[in-house]
Design brief:
The complex is a heterodimer of chains A (571) and B (427).
Chain A lengths: L1 H37 L9 H8 L2 E12 L6 H5 L4 E11 L4 E12 L4 H8 L4 H11 L7 E6 L12 E3 L4 E5 L10 H19 L3 H7 L11 H9 L6 E10 L5 E4 L2 H15 L5 E10 L8 E3 L4 E4 L8 H7 L10 E7 L8 E3 L11 E4 L3 E5 L14 E4 L2 H16 L10 E3 L9 H32 L7 H23 L2 H19 L12 H41 L1
Parallel strand pairs in A: 1-3, 1-4, 4-6, 5-17, 7-9, 7-12, 8-16, 11-13, 12-15
Antiparallel strand pairs in A: 2-3, 5-6, 10-11, 14-15
Helix pairs in contact in A: 1-15, 2-12, 7-12, 9-11, 12-13, 12-14, 13-14
Chain B lengths: L1 H20 L2 H6 L11 H13 L13 H10 L3 H36 L14 H5 L1 H10 L2 H8 L4 H17 L2 H14 L7 H11 L9 H29 L4 H11 L10 H7 L5 H14 L1 H7 L4 H15 L5 H8 L15 H25 L4 H31 L13
Helix pairs in contact in B: 1-5, 1-7, 5-7, 5-9, 8-18, 9-10, 10-12, 11-17, 17-18, 17-20, 19-20
The chains are: A alpha/beta (571), B mainly alpha (427).
InterPro entries (chain B): PIG-U
Pathway (chain B): Glycolipid biosynthesis; glycosylphosphatidylinositol-anchor biosynthesis
Pfam families (chain B): PIG-U
Chain lengths: 571, 427
Amino acid sequence: AAADAAVMPSLKTLRGQLAALSIAAVVILIGVPLWWRTTETYRAWLPVSQIQELANLQLQLSADVEVVFARGTVTPEQQKKVPLTLTQDDEHVVDGDLRTTICDLMVTKYEGCKVSNVLNSFVSRGHSVEADLSLHTLSESPCGSLVVYVIPESSSLLPEDVDVYVGQRRTALLRIGAQTRVGRTLEQLLSHLEPRVKQVLQVMSFSHTDITAALSDRVRLSPGNKESIADSMRAFKSSPGYEITFSLLNPDPKSHRLHWDIEGAVQTYIQPLLRKLAPLANFSIDSQTLYYAMLGVNPRFDSSRSAYTLNSDSLAHVINPVEARLGSNAASSNPVLNFLLYVPDAHHSPLHINDHKKQEVPSNAFHSPRWGGIMVYNVNDFYGPEAAFPVDINIDMAKVMGVFLAQLRLLLGVQSSAPPPRFLVAPCSSAGIADWELDRLMWSRSVENIATATTTITSLAQLLDQIGNIVINDNIAQQVSSAVTSLQLAVAELESGNLRFALQYSKEAILASERAFFDPSLLHLLYFPDDQKFAIYIPLFLPMCVPILLSLLKIVSDARQRRREKHAKAD
Amino acid sequence: MAAPLTLLLILAVTIRAALYRSSLADLIAERVEVVSPLTAWKRVVEGLALLDLGVSPYAGDVFHETPLIIYLFHFLVDYAEITFMVTDVITAVALYLAVKDYNKQVFRKQKYALEAERYPLDCLELIRSPKEMYYIPLKVAMFYLLNPFTILSCVAKSTCGLNNAVIALFILTTIKGNVLLSAIFLSLATYQSIYPLTLCAPALLYLTQRQYIPVNFRRFSFWWFVAQYAFMYLGSLFVMICLSFFLLGSWDYLPSVYGFILSVPDLTPNIGLFWYFFAEMFEHFRLFFLCVFQINIFFYTIPLSIKLKEHPVFLIFMQLAVISIFKSYPTVGDIALYLAFLPVWSHLHRFLRNIFLVSCVLLACSALFPVLWHLWIYAGSANSNFYYAITLLFNVAQVGRTVTETKVHLAASVSGFVYRSCCLTVT
């Protein structure tokens, strides 16, 4: 019985120890992996290495130029020796820190005599405009490329003081200089031509300053002079769509009953331009009429001209009070271009806008960068002092739309810088924008889109890398992958000179990158610091773990004591 | 013993019938403490209506009982009240017979131990007399039938009564030693709600000890028995699941019943611990804590089996207590089942130090449940914290009582290796 009594307590303690060990085993073997698996933040795989490659933005812009020699510029045997293609590249490092480089590539193809017959017929006689039109019908040059026709110096196609004629389509007529006339070799001719073709390219396609301006989002530029700052801030940033709103402001409906055929005017004047700009962005137009909308500024009466005047300083205060009353299409996040037509009230007619030099502005309109334009339309000439109020007035939409169209061009970024000396630029086509102007816009927009999308994607990747708490769902990963793919394709298309595809891919890249960056599902666990997680675990698990730990410690100390006793017994 | 039992049964049936006819029946059937989304009679009726329409009763996330229940009530819906009263009677009779048989075995063990003179003399007060043990089965039946929790559960027509009946039958067949029926009833109980799976361990322990197979992991006979039991258990479970599939025609009862029990989507307040916790849990941690809470029920099986190897019936009692405290949708009907076992160990109640405190807390909480519910939902002057506090207190009291019972039982069984005296023979 005594032996039994000695055996029983150890059996009981053994069972107790076994029970405690089994609890600890379950906690460690099942609990810890379960905790690890069920509380990890879901992070889908992102192509991080490709994003890092994109971070060094190395764009290569490639423009195809086709040079056609007319009769009289090269001798027949020189014609046979003209090389077919000549590639010239120029590398500019825009920003060493961000490793942005632009490499302009000019692939020049020298055509001997392919279409020169038609050209030759115009060389001796003819007008440049007709020549340009008929030459265009011969060869349709794809988007982004140029054709330069070299005509002899003696040709009367161009006026005396003009060396280069830039056509409506993507063609230019270049007159060979007089310096190299006698006994010139082919190499001399080509070396003389290259810088001039390059100059034409810079006017018609892209120049270093244009591309750098397009990258102004990404690269810090030196300020430059005031005009260049104003120029760079005027145009809207690249966006997948724009909203255009035409508003007629009538502060005095008791005196003037205004009629404007806005629908017809938009169809006739604005739609052709927007149709041509369709590859760039989507446009939506609406119009409204506002009554009792006053300008926020009181115009001063100028007795010398017997008219009311608005100074250029007070123009800045005009927009704000009016803007509050303009409706806007709140359903879209696209930028809005507002074009306001203000008909001054009968007591403040006529109203003229003065520029900085106190001269009247001929168009009587002004525009605000990245906002829109305002035109003042004086109607006091339409009626005499004894007319019965209200007077019906039909607004001359041609004049109005002319001003608005010019402002629209400026606001959308179609450059209006003066051409270099001895250049003659053809007047715009009926659409309001020349093909090469569109190409210019497309070049700069593509670069801008690519730069913005790259910045967005690289900063998103950096953010996701640094903050481990952000959940990366599968749709985010898919958007990022598609953005990266589109960017790579856009860069490749720019390299090979397919401008239209480059623009399309760059737009897709921007859309995907913005969607990934601003997705709200990223933020689910963001403000969930690790110490709060412990605040969730500790109240439940600490009281449970304390007895387990204590019993484990007791087991360990008992084992140690038993070992010591065994050693003591052995000794 | 038949006459007092019959009298008791008649009394219980009368009370239940009286309550059925009164206006309290509807009131009780809506109390969240008595019915849960799993066991509510309203939902069974809804499932029956859907079945009559030809739509799967599990469409619409209303009905969460097993298909066998709905097919049972398809035939018995007009006699529902009688069915539930009969169920209670079956449970009580099963418990009565089970405890009677258990007492016989306890007596036998006491006799052998006393003859072997294993008792130290100062433990004689723990030895039980036959007179005490004579009335224990009747007390057990009475504790079950006249327990207000049981009456409330029966009047509310909660299907918890059916679950209790199955578990009681399982206990009866286990104690009688019938391996096949024990496996069948256990699989039926597991099929109803998953948690009785933990009763496998005590059943195995009891049956092996009854058949004198030593519980030793190195002996082949032990593993052979375990394999037999497991085969019978899994076989009958498989048969029941396939039968449900063929009756219903689709597998959509599996996510509706077992998915519902395990993933706890319905957070209606009840007397359990899950609802408040998961109402406030962050979505990110929900899966982890769900797993933790569900593992918590199965967690105590192995340590308790190790500790209480010699006392499988007490282990059954412990497991039932653990299940009814920690299950995902407990009701007072589950509590009533294990409370019925208290008279079996009444000889230890002398040593429970805090029995008065625990009983008072349980009574007070039971009274406070409807009060705080009214304050929270109808008067609007309390909030869920009040109700959950009472829930927590209720469960803490139960756990405290369970733990002290276990401690005292172990102490009583080990100190001096107590086995009951057998100086008096069994009648």
